[in-house]
Specification:
InterPro entries: DUF6498. The chain is mostly helical. The chain has 9 helices and 2 strands, in the order H-H-H-H-E-E-H-H-H-H-H. It is elongated.
Length: 240
């Protein structure tokens, strides 16, 4: 498979691709119209990671199939259902333990962000009077987009019954793939270009322009990742 094959596949099924572009366009709009800084973009990104993990790790609790690469009697026997809420499908105790183990990554990620950037975020004048309306709209868009993905891959036709918890966890950890791609294919080369232009050409690069230089290629990567199905060979992420 060539590098272009996943991109062509995404364009043949453009719904997720277009949705990813729209979400990133919202970030660009925030920078241009609402004068978002790196702080606001980072906050939106972390909130997006939290929403993705909450939604898909919750769905993982309802998937009855076994995880193929897991040993032990708990995965070789029929799961014992628990149904604390009669209006919802049953959950499975083995899934609770599996998801709890995987959720450690999210807790560490959020903890590092809060610990490292708490003072910067809360001292920002943009958040002095609470969450701005523009941030709230962005969060609402993220929630709707992720709920659509849950419906598409797990809820429609009760397809979750044919899934394992690992299938949902793959979606939850998709932002990790985004982060790695953006680090190597956006942050490093764009930083090199920006610093080189500022030094060699003596160009005064404004902070807003720099953010846009990062956000445009980031949008392409996020749209591509968002259009992939982590349950296929297009994208495979494993932790533990």
């Amino acid at each position: 498979m060539s590098v272009a094959d996943p991109v062509l596949e995404a364009l043949r099924d453009p719904h997720g691709f277009v949705s990813g572009l729209i979400l990133n366009a919202a970030l660009i709009l925030g920078v241009i119209v609402f004068e978002w800084s790196l702080i606001e973009i980072a906050v939106v990104y972390v909130i997006e990671v939290v929403i993705i993990n909450f939604v898909f790790l919750s769905v993982a609790l309802f998937t009855p199939q076994s995880v193929d690469d897991r040993d032990g009697d708990v995965w070789n026997t029929k799961p014992t259902p628990l149904q604390p809420v009669s209006q919802l499908p049953p959950i499975y105790w083995r899934n609770v333990k599996f998801v709890g183990h995987k959720a450690v990554f999210t807790v560490v990620f959020i903890g590092v962000f809060i610990g490292g950037f708490r003072n910067i975020v809360f001292s920002s004048p943009y958040f002095a009077s609470g969450v701005p309306l523009s941030i709230g709209v962005a969060i609402a868009g993220i929630i709707l987009f992720q709920l659509r993905r849950v419906w598409q891959y797990f809820i429609i036709d009760q397809s979750y019954q044919n899934k394992s918890p690992l299938d949902a966890v793959q979606f939850a950890f998709a932002p990790v793939a985004e982060l790695l791609f953006m680090l190597f294919y956006v942050f490093v080369p764009v930083t090199f270009v920006v610093v080189g232009a500022a030094i060699v050409m003596n160009v005064d690069v404004t902070s807003r322009l720099v953010l846009l230089l990062y956000l445009v290629p980031m949008g392409a990567i996020r749209a591509w990742i968002g259009s992939l199905d982590p349950q296929t060979d297009d994208l495979e992420i494993r932790f533990g």
